[in-house]
Amino acid sequence: MSAQGQARRPLLLDAEGRASGSDDENKWTRNRIKQQQPVQGPFFAVGRGVPGDLTILDGLHRAAVWLKHADAGLHYPMTVNVSVTSRPVWFEGV
Question: How many domains does one find in the chain?
Fold first, then answer.
């Protein structure tokens, strides 16, 4: 569980949920997916090492749009700034 009480889930599952929902919280994400215009980065993530599992701390909505664009064949680069820590941070459900 994350520190916010939500189970961790891969970006693909998160993006699918944001794209298919009808709630106001994800309206921006759904609109950006439909626009087919690249989103701007960077994202910010933490992890124990690169390569390895990362936790996106900033840019999760944009990351969902980027992934759904890639699924639709719209490919473009995205920058992810990664902070490597020796221990998990609060948002990773320590």
Answer: 1
**Could you list the residue range(s) of the whole structural domain that residue 68 is in?**
11-92
Distance CA 64, CA 34 (A): 12
What average pLDDT does range 48-66 have in this prediction?
88
CA atoms of 41 and 33, how far apart (whole Å): 15
* 32-37, long-range: CB < 8 A, 24+ apart: 32/61, 32/62, 32/65, 33/64, 33/65, 33/68, 33/69, 36/69, 36/72, 36/74
pTM: 0.80
3-state secondary structure at position 6: coil
5 domain residue, yes or no: no
Q: What is the mean pLDDT of the chain?
A: 85
